[in-house]
Design goal:
By secondary structure, the chain is mainly α. Helix content is about 55%, strand content about 0%.
Length: about 250
């Protein structure tokens, strides 16, 4: 499809078709109704594309004032359909950044040479995941949409909670490591202390007031059960005393 044919087709669907063209080319800031008409226009990107490719200096095209069009860099050397997609993204960004009722730019301005392609990157940033977290939050804080601002606030609160938890867990792990090291050291110290302590004195032997060997011999000879070691039972000793009383 050649350019002329493409232009003819989108013009047929223009939202401004049949309206007073002075509204799009008058001096001073464009009327809100004019910008609102463009915002709802189904061929807005096509209109802007033609204005940029033909360096149209005056009037509102694609819902953009001359100054706003100057903020758009040189169009990339790509197929028209691909460039139109880029322009739609840029238009969405501009609409979010500046509602039509806040636009004050005069209409009649000359268009200088397009700026660098870096401007495209500013208008259409990469996916949020590619941004550093702090930059992403700052972007959310400054967003015109209150929902995005609220998301940024929630994300910031969540991050703060995560940072606090990470810090607590880190400290707990350190404490646990130290505890384990101290417990191991305590075990070592106790073992060494046990090695160094002198042996405990053995308990004194209890005094035995009978001749154990003689008593055992007597008991065995007289049918009493006695253990070969240790103390002889009291009744056996008393029986021995009674039996041997008076014996020199
Ligand atoms: S974008 Fe605006 S100026 Fe362009 S065709 Fe649509 S209504 Fe007309």
């Amino acid at each position: 499809m050649n350019t002329a044919t493409a232009t003819e087709r989108w013009v047929e669907r223009a939202a401004c078709a049949g309206q007073d063209s002075n509204d799009w080319f008058r001096m001073g800031a464009p009327a809100r109704t004019t910008l609102d008409t463009c915002r709802g226009c189904p061929v807005r990107a096509e209109c802007l594309y033609d204005a940029l490719t033909h360096e149209t200096p005056n009037g509102v095209w694609g819902g953009l004032t001359p100054a706003e069009r100057r903020s758009i860099p040189a169009l990339p050397d790509k197929p028209r359909a691909e460039v139109l997609g880029l322009l739609r993204t840029i238009l969405d960004r501009l609409d979010n950044a500046a509602p039509s009722d806040e636009r004050t730019e005069p209409v009649a301005q000359p268009i200088p040479a397009p700026s660098s392609t870096d401007a495209v990157a500013k208008l259409v940033p990469g996916p949020p995941a590619e941004l550093p977290v702090d930059d992403l939050l700052a972007w959310g804080d400054q967003h015109i949409d209150p929902d995005v601002q609220a998301q940024a606030a929630r994300a910031r609160a969540s991050l703060t909670g995560l940072r606090n938890r990470h810090s607590s867990d880190h400290e707990l792990n350190k404490i646990t490591d130290e505890e384990e090291q101290l417990a191991a050291r305590l075990t070592e110290l106790r073992a060494r202390k046990a090695e160094l302590l002198p042996d405990k004195p053995r308990g004194k032997r209890q005094h035995v007031d009978y001749p154990a060997a003689e008593v055992r011999a007597w008991a065995t000879a007289n049918g009493h059960e006695v253990s070969p070691t240790g103390r002889v039972r009291k009744e056996v000793v008393e029986a021995w005393r009674a039996a041997t009383a008076g014996t020199p």
